[in-house]
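Many introductory courses stop at the sequence. We go one step further.
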Amino acid sequence: MDINLKNLLPKIIPTRNKYEAGFVVGLSGSLGMYGACKLSALAALKTGSGIVKVITNREIPSAFYELVNLIIDYSKTGEILKNINSSDCCFIGPGLGRDKKVSKLLLKILPKIKVKTILDADALYFLSKNLNCSLPKEIVFTPHLYEMQRLLNEKVIGEELIEKTEKFSKEHEVIIVLKGNPTIIFAPDKKSSIIMNGDPGLASAGTGDVLTGMIASFAAQKMDLYDASMLAVNMHFMASKLAAKDLSSYNLMASDVIKYLPKVFLQILNN
């Protein structure tokens, strides 16, 4: 699908402050899995968001300087909701964990979230067990193949997977970014979009967390969720190709995708 990425890029207002530049809040990370939330948060900052805050129930170790870590016990649902609903967009799931405290928290907060929301990883695992849970009005799921099969409760592949994912998107009124090579974006009111040519090195832990942060970032910068998903997937693929050209597909890691995002921005802007 041909798309003018330059026209999609969020416009920069010279007089803006950091909150007006895109305010993202993440509910992400747990013991042993803090790398996931750091990748999502850094990707959001490197794609233009002015401030990113991540809610965890324990301090994130070795957090990078620009990351704001809100340490809130998961029993304090009101405080967590207040922070999420103060943002322009939230992401939930990368490295979050699957214990009972997480499930209880998500059951309570998901129906009350009023901002754009990206659900990934452990949040999708939760949903596969709680498909009747009420969800935010504006929402994107970012499953890979096995996560989508879990949501469908069927081990379907190929055309059958595409057909059933499209049906799921319409029935549940959610945008679905089905990750892979190609990646397919489904929306309830649009024809599905196929995006190709990601580097094979993206089949690596953490690259999906990077994409989640990118979608959240663009959505926080006043883009609608469909366009934010389209722009993020295309730029994610472009960064992977540039990184692999220098490093090879064998060496490509999630953090490399983030490192090459500035080159992608320059390539789009100078095109």
